[in-house]
């Protein structure tokens, strides 16, 4: 579907049809309401035939009605073309609109600081996102019994983030909702809609702030985690004023800062959330805004721009958060040293398209290495993190996406996600860099996304199907222990493992 199509009479009729039949739930400009946003950015994972089917037949157990008796095939076809057509103007989701969306479900002060769940170890609970019917299941990581289930916003995206103590979890949804859930009281605390199409969120190491990356509009939104009230909105523009989608945000705990990577501009931003930002932070260059860059008094949450020579994306950070390896538009690796804020390795040539942000690092023969899966090719690239040289290419049965290990485990687990072997999970020995076992947990079905228990003794695998499952393996014998039916469990997150970004005793 080409842009400019919007001018034709065909879509003009579609716009009218949309207003009559759909706007009540999906909002007049397709930004979403009771129903999800219907914009090409948001519908990336919904194929057109599936959209047609949805409109024809509706969706069972949801508010989405069937239109087959109301609309002709041609009308439905033109509606589908319409919803996959970009808006002619980027929607303005400004701070007033963000504030107006804010919902407080339960005042945090009224919620007791005591876990309600009857589990041995509250920190060994898994938060399982079931995308199939937009629910979340809490799974006891000791007994592998589901202990609670609740409805989420439509289409959660990215990893949920946890407060340092593990009590709260923050979800982000495709359509821009950030939701705070209390894992002690099993209640929602607050929600806010920060954008129309969101990519991911990052939490500060102290747990006080969330930064959210949006594709639509081109903004970054900083929230106070206590009640999700917005603190600051950054319009993303480079020094020349070109605006950009945000591809992802990350946290750097040692620097008390966030990083943001962009899709359309060759800059990389660092935003300080320190109470007293380092002297001169963000003042080394004029900002595009009139109210910053000139004063000597630091602004709260200042940003500094790191100019890169390509659109860098998909980062892996070393443990000290000094070296960052990212993917250039051309599909090559590039390493930036954040101490000097310079590119130190301009080009690492790897086959296919490496997925750095899913990489895992570990010690191999006395050196620190990084293993990286690949979206395009059946290989895992292992890089020396000192010299950034490729030391091994492990052949797999097809391209993958995630990989996971645990400090107590001798193995790395990864999956084949694309192609005829999408049902495969590979287990790689960290000391030999060889595949030691290839599992097919559910032949013919997509298996993916491995997560360990707190102690690293078990590894959990998802079967990405409506009638899917979470399968528990003994991480030493590699034998199946249990199969728990789930509705497309896209991801599962062990509270303890996901709060290790900062040491905490509270
Ligand atoms: C009464 C409210 C309502 C009306 C009217 C309505 N929808 Fe929906 N629609 C929904 C809800 C709720 C969902 C989410 C269903 C789910 O949970 O899977 C949805 C989902 C969809 C989806 C799937 C989106 C996705 O990302 O999976 C499409 C496409 C869609 N609607 C198109 C339309 C069109 C076109 C019309 C008008 C002809 C329409 N809807 C009218 C409520 C509505």
What does this structure look like?
The protein has 506 residues and is mainly beta. Among the domains are: 79 residues, Cytochrome c-like domain (Cytochrome Bc1 Complex, Chain D, domain 2); 107 residues, YVTN repeat-like/Quinoprotein amine dehydrogenase (Methylamine Dehydrogenase, Chain H, 7 Propeller). The protein is 10% helix and 37% strand. It is built from six helices and 33 strands. The strands form eight sheets. It has a five-stranded antiparallel sheet. A hairpin with a 5-residue loop joins strand 31 and strand 32. Helix 1 crosses helix 4 and helix 3 packs across helix 4. The chain is globular, with a radius of gyration of 23 Å. The N terminus and C terminus are likely disordered. It binds heme C. The site of heme C has 23 residues, from helix 2 and helix 3.
Primary descriptors:
506 residues, mainly beta, Cytochrome Bc1 Complex, Chain D, domain 2, Methylamine Dehydrogenase, Chain H, 5-stranded antiparallel sheet, 4-stranded antiparallel sheet, 6 helices, globular, disordered N terminus, disordered C terminus, binds heme C
Summed up:
This protein has 506 residues and is mostly beta strands. The chain has helices at residues 9-21, 23-26, 48-57, 73-83, 95-101, 495-498; strands at 103-104, 125-130, 135-140, 146-151, 161-162, 168-172, 177-182, 187-193, 197-203, 209-216, 219-224, 229-235, 246-252, 257-262, 267-272, 303-307, 313-317, 323-327, 333-337, 342-348, 360-364, 367-372, 379-384, 390-395, 403-404, 411-415, 425-429, 434-439, 447-452, 458-463, 468-474, 480-486, 489-494. The longest helix has 13 residues, at 9-21.
């Amino acid at each position: 579907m080409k842009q400019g199509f919007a001018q034709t009479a065909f879509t003009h009729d579609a716009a009218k049809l949309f207003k009559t039949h759909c706007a009540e739930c999906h909002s007049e400009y397709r930004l979403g309401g009771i129903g999800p946003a219907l914009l090409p950015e948001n519908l990336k994972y919904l194929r057109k035939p599936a959209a047609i089917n949805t409109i024809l037949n509706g969706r069972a157990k949801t508010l989405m009605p069937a239109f087959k008796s109301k609309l002709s095939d041609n009308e439905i076809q033109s509606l589908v073309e319409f919803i996959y057509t970009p808006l002619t103007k980027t929607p303005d989701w400004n701070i007033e609109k963000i504030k107006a969306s804010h919902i407080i479900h339960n005042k945090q002060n009224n919620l007791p600081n005591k876990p309600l769940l009857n589990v041995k170890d509250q920190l060994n609970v898994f938060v399982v996102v079931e995308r199939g019917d937009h629910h979340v299941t809490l799974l006891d990581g000791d007994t592998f019994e589901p202990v609670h289930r609740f409805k989420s916003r439509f289409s959660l995206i990215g990893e949920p983030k946890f407060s340092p103590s593990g009590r709260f979890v923050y979800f982000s949804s495709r359509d821009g909702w950030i939701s705070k859930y209390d894992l002690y009281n099993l209640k929602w605390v607050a929600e806010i809609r920060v954008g129309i199409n969101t990519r991911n969120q990052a939490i500060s190491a102290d747990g006080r702030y969330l930064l959210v990356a949006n594709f639509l509009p081109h903004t970054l939104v900083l929230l106070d985690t206590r009640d999700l009230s917005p603190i600051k909105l950054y319009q993303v523009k480079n020094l020349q004023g070109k605006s950009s989608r945000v591809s992802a945000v990350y946290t750097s705990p040692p620097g008390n800062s966030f990083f943001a990577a962009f899709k359309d501009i060759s800059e990389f931003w660092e935003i300080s959330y320190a109470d007293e930002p380092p002297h001169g932070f963000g003042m080394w260059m004029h900002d595009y805004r009139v109210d910053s860059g000139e004063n000597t008094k630091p602004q709260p949450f200042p940003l500094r721009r790191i100019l890169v020579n390509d659109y860098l994306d998909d980062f892996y950070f070393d443990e000290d958060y000094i070296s960052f390896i990212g993917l250039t538009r051309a599909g090559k690796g590039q390493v930036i040293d954040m101490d000097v804020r310079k590119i130190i390795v301009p080009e690492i040539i790897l086959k296919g398209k490496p997925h750095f942000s899913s990489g895992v690092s570990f010690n191999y023969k006395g050196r620190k290495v990084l293993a990286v899966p690949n979206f395009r090719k059946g290989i895992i690239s292992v890089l020396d993190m000192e010299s950034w040289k490729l030391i091994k290419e492990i052949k797999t049965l097809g391209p993958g996406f995630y990989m996971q290990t645990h400090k107590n485990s001798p193995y790395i687990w990864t999956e084949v996600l694309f192609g005829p072997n999408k049902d495969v999970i590979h287990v790689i020995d960290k000391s030999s860099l060889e595949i030691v076992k290839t599992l097919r947990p559910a032949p013919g079905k997509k298996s993916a996304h491995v997560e360990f228990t707190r102690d690293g003794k078990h590894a959990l695998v998802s079967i990405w199907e409506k009638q899917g499952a979470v399968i528990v393996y003994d991480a030493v014998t590699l034998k199946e222990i249990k199969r728990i039916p789930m509705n497309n469990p896209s991801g599962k997150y062990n509270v303890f493992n996901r709060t290790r970004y900062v040491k905490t005793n509270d």
